[in-house]
Recover the amino acids of this structure.
């Protein structure tokens, strides 16, 4: 399966090229948002609502999603293309009521498009986009679609969500360095079947894998990366590749020790050979924690690097971890820079 085009709206850009260029340059879109933590100190966040002014809640999510889907579509006709959207988990604080049932119909109305019958949402948080990609692959293989739009949208900057993160001591504040910076974003990938002979410059999703991690972020047991390692191994097996074919990774880590420890332990469980370099990329230091938008955003960023000859290696590992315990990984390959 190949990535045909992308769309993205983040705290550092209103389009995919703008967002990716800013991330590549290390530009951070952090500002003090109009909210305070339990100690009365301002909360730092990464807001994307510059692209859809004066919108909050459902209108904000819809506006961000519509912009990215429209960008990924470009001049292509939307008919015959299912929209597979990753959303926040049902128990995320401040989640708009009826989000799953309403957002795709509202999107179709906003963009004046006929909603494909196989369109659906994946309310799985950070792993949702990779779940959607696996479903897209099955639709393409069955001939049910000529292409699929795999998107993700989320906001962790609503008051209810901020209050819950603060209560759980997960916000990065003056008194808590082991926390995340809440963000909001949307990203979209148009994907199509690679075919028997994909073009030499194609960015390919070669394998996808999933697993479950029993140790949650609130658990007193140490996180050892067992679930994430299983997802990585499943993705490698699906691709018919090994870690010898992968030379860097991109992950949805957000600054919390839990996520960093998990990523490092999982690498230790899967990388069984000596490598001089194994770069670790992440978007959180520029656009904050973006939840369900992270999977599509990371893959969109990889395409940006490959397309511009800026990818350091031809094989990349992308992995995501949801608060629900779901773990997902994808193996991506593309043209090597000269």
């Amino acid at each position: 399966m190949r990535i045909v085009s992308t769309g993205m709206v983040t705290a550092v850009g209103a389009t995919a090229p703008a967002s990716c260029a800013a991330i590549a340059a290390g530009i951070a879109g952090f500002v003090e948002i109009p909210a305070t933590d339990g100690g009365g100190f301002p909360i730092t966040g990464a807001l994307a609502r510059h692209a859809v002014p004066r919108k909050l809640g459902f209108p904000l999510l819809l506006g961000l999603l519509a912009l990215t889907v429209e960008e990924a579509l470009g001049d292509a006709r939307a008919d015959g293309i299912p929209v597979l959207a990753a959303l926040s988990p049902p128990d995320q604080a401040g989640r708009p009521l009826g989000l799953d049932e309403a957002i795709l119909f509202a999107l179709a109305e906003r963009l004046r498009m006929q909603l494909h019958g196989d369109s659906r949402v994946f309310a799985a948080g950070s792993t949702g986009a990779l779940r959607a990609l696996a479903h897209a692959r099955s639709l393409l293989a069955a001939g049910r679609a000529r292409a699929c739009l795999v998107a993700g949208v989320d906001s962790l900057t609503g008051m209810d969500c901020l209050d819950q993160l603060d209560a759980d001591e997960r916000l990065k504040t003056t008194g808590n360095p082991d926390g995340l910076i809440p963000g909001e974003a949307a990203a979209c990938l148009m994907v199509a079947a690679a075919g028997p002979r994909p073009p030499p410059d194609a960015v390919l999703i070669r394998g996808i894998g999933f697993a479950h991690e029993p140790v949650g972020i609130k658990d007193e047991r140490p996180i050892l990366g067992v679930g994430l390692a299983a997802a990585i191994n499943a993705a490698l097996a699906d691709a018919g590749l090994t870690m010898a074919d992968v030379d860097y990774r991109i992950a949805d880590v957000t600054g919390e020790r839990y996520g960093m420890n998990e990523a490092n332990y999982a690498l230790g469980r899967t990388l069984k050979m000596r490598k001089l370099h194994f770069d670790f990329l992440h978007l959180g230091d520029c656009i904050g924690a973006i939840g369900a938008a992270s999977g599509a955003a990371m893959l969109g960023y990889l395409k940006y690097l490959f397309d511009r000859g800026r990818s350091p290696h031809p094989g990349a590992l992308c992995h995501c971890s949801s608060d629900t315990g779901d773990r997902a990984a994808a193996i991506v390959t593309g043209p090597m820079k000269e």
